Fold this protein.
Amino acid sequence: MLREFRCEWTRLMSRNYILGGIGLMAALGLVVTFIVFFTATADSGVTMPGGPSVSVSTLEAPDGMFAGLKLASNMWGLVALVVWAIFASSDYSNGLIRLLVQAQPNRLRLFGGKVVALVLFTCVATLATTLLVLIASPPVAGATGISAEAWRTDMAQTLLNGYLHLTLAALMWGFVGLFVGVMTRSTGLSIAVGIGYLVVFEMVLTLLLDSGAKWLPGSSFGTVAAGGTDDMSFATGLMVAVGYVVVTLVIATVTFRRRDITA
Amino acid sequence: MSVIRTDKLSRHFGDVIALRELDLELTGPGVIGLVGPNGSGKSTLIRLLLGLIRPTSGGATVFDSPISHPGRYAHRVGALIESPAFVPSLSARTNLRSLARLRGISNTRVDEVLAIVGLLDRSKEPVKRFSLGMKQRLGIAAALLPDAELLVLDEPTNGLDPAGIVEMRQLLRSLGDQARTVIVSSHLLSEIEAACDSLAIVRFGQLLFSGPLADLVSQAGESIEIAPEHPADVDGLAEALRAGGWKASVVLDEVHVSAPVSRSADVNRAAAEAGIVLRVLRPREASLEEVFLRMTGTETGDNGRPATKLEEVA
């Protein structure tokens, strides 16, 4: 599968994907971090629908520097979803899929190479974001009068956990993007479906379902990103999220393997 | 050597029949034209052979391997399928390198094929800046990457200027002369005639002809071209010949008579008996275009047929 991976990686390393994927994810992470630090108060601060609020005490906790990323993990994951969806669907919209399948008729290997390349790309994007937040957070905390004392407690473990949780969540959103991209075969449509689901459909469902909303894809991915919430433990959230990923991945793989290429 | 063999190969898209029990054998090496009106099934046949779609019924082999296992022959085949497809924001070289990596081909070969199609100097430019002709050349370069024994090129002269068309014709000929089999699907019959050794004609998903070009043209039968001394007599001349039992048709200021050249004197005598002196009398060989149009029953090359329904076949 190395050949397939290298082929996909070459295209992922274009300026468009680096700026639009890694760059946008890192920038979004930084912006959200700045916002929560500058708006947090003793009692509360920035909140996302259905999510916790970020107070000063949250930011002063050992994993406080990741509070912004965790809070906006779904929005951040949406960028991953869009990148994966664009990468999967553009092969169809620009007709490149014809050349790829003709050169490698084993479509499972081709699909595997694409998935591995996207996973690595997302890991790099999350790493870049984590490093930027790590570098930017202490001076921002200092400027906003928030104590960063606790951050030094078991810092390596906190960083590793934060990175793993965020990466897992981003990957899960990415797999949903891959599913949407393969099924729609249209870049515009896949973005619209992805954003429409997160911004409209899941929010409406969250309001309707109340406590049952925690089982929805976005909520479970958010639980993974946060390392667990009051409503759901990390392990339960991970199992639910992996369930969604497995279902979407199986459908996308079977579709990719069996569908006629008429693009 | 049999390169491609199909056995009652059919492909339906819903109730539309794109290929109908096609039996075809193409042998190489050489340049083979695949021609037919738009919607005749050429692209469907190419996609089936390359493993992009699956047949509804029947089968086919490429290099004696079934098309159900395209992986067995993919490394021996290079293809340009319909319009060239690349990532617009990437350079020509990066696009080709991506494909080369998929095939396990070195970067040296990328530069070689870029040089062959005359794009080496512009290989660092993003493909979005390329003209249609340049993209077409890049598509050919991608097909040449694996140094394949079989090249399948769908409309390779699309978008090329006249000089580019001549170059492409020479390239096709040289590839055919290098013990390769080159299958060229085109609607430009003049190009097929100039570049190909043999051809296959399909219409409504069925084979109309397969064999050497000379055989096809000879199937059209001999004819004699005559012209009266005075152009005004052309209709009268045709009428007089028809009255004498000849098959004659007026083409501009000439009359084409379907008859063997050995009967030229009889044609001349019939004209004289009608009181018309001939200014021109010569044997005439039908062009590929005429033969094609006669066989496919179209005048535009686009058969414009409605979708062939299954119920019409039943």
